[in-house]
Design a protein that fits this description.
The chain has seven helices and twelve strands. The protein is α/β, with parallel strands linked by helices. The chain has two domains: about 160 residues, HAD superfamily/HAD-like (Rossmann fold); about 70 residues, Alpha-Beta Plaits (2-Layer Sandwich), CATH 3.30.70.1020. Strands 5-4-3-2-1-10-11-12 form an eight-stranded mixed sheet, sandwiched between helices. Strands 6-7-9-8 form a four-stranded antiparallel sheet, covered by helices on one side. The radius of gyration is 18 Å and the shape is globular. The mean pLDDT is about 90.
Length: about 250
Amino acid sequence: MLPSPPPAPERPIALFLDFDGTLVEIAPRPGDVVVGDSLRALLESLHVALGGALAVVSGRRLSDLLAHLAPLRVPATGSHGLEYQLRPGHSQSTTDARLPECAWRELEAFVAAHPALLLEHKGHGAAVHFRQAPELADAVAATLGTLRDRDAPDFMLQAGKMVWELRPQGITKATAIERFMATPPFAGRLPVFVGDDVTDEDGFRAVNALGGWAIYVGEDAGDTVAGMALPDVTAVHRWLRDMDSKLSRHCA
């Protein structure tokens, strides 16, 4: 059993938060997630209290992530670090790589033949969700693996919670966090990353290497490299409120 994190360390922190499964409950379809006004207000308050050193670090496409967070405007990265904005309104990409059109056509045909699957366009790559058809997990992985080997050798096959994804190699949530930590207002602070999925393990390793806090979200931490844990999304919100309260008292 991993220990719970304290409300906040004594030194200034840079706070990095995953989205699905961390800030919001995972929905049957990615578009069905709900971001309540109270969560937006809490993130805005923390963003101010931390001097801007708060970023949402997601596997979602950046434009989709920002649409769910709106009107909140905070630093963010999408597609596991392939897209990012250090400052609101200034989005950038780390690569020009795109999944070939022939691969897209085959993916569309494959998903059309299995209506319970969901194909997500990630800009640079693609994700196939099988939450409604878990028995198709192996078929999804095999299909994406075949397309990678044949059409996209510079792409990697990435597992997630009830999803397989094809995305360009070399960019991860670790590189995203390292990019933020190299720039103000994040630079020089203690990095804290909260996440729930296997794709967050790269980010955990990055903050561990920097002497920060890696916080896993879930009842069963398994083989995570995180050193702390919170059981669920509700607990994450409670912890963030406690941190906001502590920081607000300090500022007062």
